[in-house]
Amino acid sequence: MIKAINKDQMLLAQTAQVATKQDAQVGQDLLDTLAANADRCVGMAANMIGVPKHIVVVSMGPFNVLMYNAQIVSRKGAYDAMEGCLSLTGERPAKRWRQITVTYQDANFKPQRAEFSGFTAQIIQHELDHCAGIII
């Protein structure tokens, strides 16, 4: 189901709770909401639809990838970026890493480990900041 975009900074500043299989509908809602906003958005975290769970979706070319409980386990190549967000007005500075390794649970809650670089890595970092309650 497509959900409204949350702009409440009190909710956005909350640390996300661990996602479980009972949160699968939230994952689907995130996928639906990202698809509905594809013209202006490349990633979302569950708190952006008002749910403080550790769930993100990331646009990777033609696919939107769902990640539960993702964690960055290594990072290389720091740089400064300017980022926008559907939940916030304007752009803000953020420190990012060019290459990251992430562990997460996929849509079936199976453990995964993957490396990401460039813009995809930046999107993941932005969404994981949301899960940590970090407002850029």
Rough outline:
globular
Radius of gyration: 14 Å
Q: What is the annotated CATH architecture?
A: Alpha-Beta Complex
Low-confidence stretches: none
CATH hierarchy class name? Alpha Beta
- SSE pattern: HHEEEEEH
Total domains, how many? 1
User: Which structural class best describes the helix and strand composition?
Assistant: alpha+beta
Sketch the major β-sheet. Answer: 5 strands, antiparallel
CATH topology: Peptide Deformylase
Question: How far do the termini sit from each other?
Answer: 27 Å
Work out the helix count: 3
CATH superfamily: Peptide deformylase
Number of strands: 5
- Strand neighbour order, sheet with most strands: 1-2-3-4-5
Mean pLDDT: 96
Q: Strand-residue fraction?
A: 35-45%
- What helical percentage do the residues reach? 10-25%
How does this structure look, described?
23% of the residues lie in helices and 39% in strands. It is α+β, with helices and mostly antiparallel strands and 136 residues long. It has one domain (9-131): Peptide Deformylase (Alpha-Beta Complex).
Short summary of the structure?
By secondary structure, this protein is of the alpha+beta class. The chain contains three helices and five strands, in the order ααβββββα.
Question: Which helices and strands occur, and which strands form pairs?
Answer:
Blueprint: H1 9-12, H2 24-36, E1 43-45, E2 55-60, E3 63-84, E4 91-105, E5 111-117, H3 118-131
